[in-house]
Design a protein that fits this description.
single chain; 291 residues; alpha/beta; Rossmann fold; 2 domains; six-stranded parallel beta sheet; three-stranded parallel beta sheet; binds guanine; amino-acid biosynthesis
Length: 291
């Protein structure tokens, strides 16, 4: 039987509508709009699209969103100075530094400089540590989006075996923490995992977040499993054009899974929706003086 398609585009609209209402209430209470500052360094085409979308989406829900575009040659200290200026700016609630940064800039140094209270990506070690110790504050956006999609699928997570393929700080590790918090039994697999297909076949919930086009094949999936595909890979479409595919071989897996996210239109739109939610969360925490 064909899997249910988990429509992230539609669900993201619902989340954005929730945030829009929240922004209206925030403005009424505090007399200002939540502020999101997005920093792009360099001219990576995909990052240009993502950051423009983030700025646009924030303004669409009534926030004050602003994109800073810096040339790839910008010295590390200048990026750091911008982050520090935004840390000190009262009207800024959220700061997002788009990754990847140019090779000449030490990513960790920049991310560690973001005020944890304004870290709407949830990448700061303090926020990662709070999540890992079961006291989440600002949580990475893509994992939050994955969890909302699992809620849409109405999959019981308590006692379920969740296999997360990928161990990045952006997706793999935080989504594993969130699944654990929902009482799933969680296995994190990665490029050195032995017999990945057999391990994945044990999963009730399979999250693919490795950035390898169509790595997860039909024989990786237990019948009836719920599959969340975080991958966004650009591949040759064979007609002189390119196309986007996920980390999951969609057509094969959709025959076996009970529910699956498409690419595009699955996890991707949810990431931006939860960036908006995190910005509102950060704005509330700052306005209430709790951070
Ligand atoms: N690059 C790819 N995904 C992300 C993300 O979620 N946040 C940031 N800042 N950069 C990214």
């Amino acid at each position: 039987m064909a899997a249910r398609i988990l429509d992230g585009k539609k669900l993201a609209e619902t989340v954005r509508a929730e945030v829009r209402e929240g922004v209206t209430a925030f403005k009424a209470k505090y007399g200002r709009a939540p502020g999101l500052e997005v920093i792009l360094v360099g001219d990576d085409p995909a990052s240009q699209v993502y950051t423009r979308n983030k700025e646009k989406a924030s303004n669409e829900v009534g926030m004050r969103g602003h994109l800073h575009v810096l040339p790839a040659s910008t010295p590390e200290d200048d990026v750091l100075a911008l982050v520090q200026r935004l840390n000190a700016d009262e009207a800024t609630d959220g700061i997002l530094v788009q990754l990847p940064l140019p090779k000449s800039i030490r990513e960790q140094r920049i991310l560690d400089a973001v005020d944890p209270a304004k870290d709407v990506d949830g990448f700061h070690p303090i926020n990662a540590g709070l999540l890992a110790s079961g006291r989440p504050r600002l949580v990475p956006c893509t994992p939050l989006g994955c969890m909302r999609l699992l809620a849409l699928a109405e999959v019981p997570l308590k006692g379920a075996h969740a296999v997360v393929v990928g161990r990045s700080n952006i997706v793999g590790k935080p989504v594993a923490q969130l699944l654990l918090a929902e009482h799933a039994t969680v296995t994190i697999a990665h490029s050195r995992t032995k017999d990945l297909a057999a391990l994945c076949r044990e999963a009730d919930v399979l999250v693919a977040a490795v950035g390898k086009a169509e790595l997860v094949r039909g024989n990786f999936v237990k019948p009836g499993a719920v599959v969340i595909d975080v991958g966004i890979n650009r591949v040759d479409a064979g007609n002189g054009k390119t196309k986007l595919v996920g980390d999951v071989a969609y057509a094969e897996v959709a025959e076996i899974a009970s529910a699956i996210t498409p690419v595009p239109g699955g996890v991707g739109p949810m990431t931006i929706a939860y960036l908006l939610q995190n910005t509102l969360t950060a704005a509330h925490a700052r306005a209430a003086g709790s951070t």
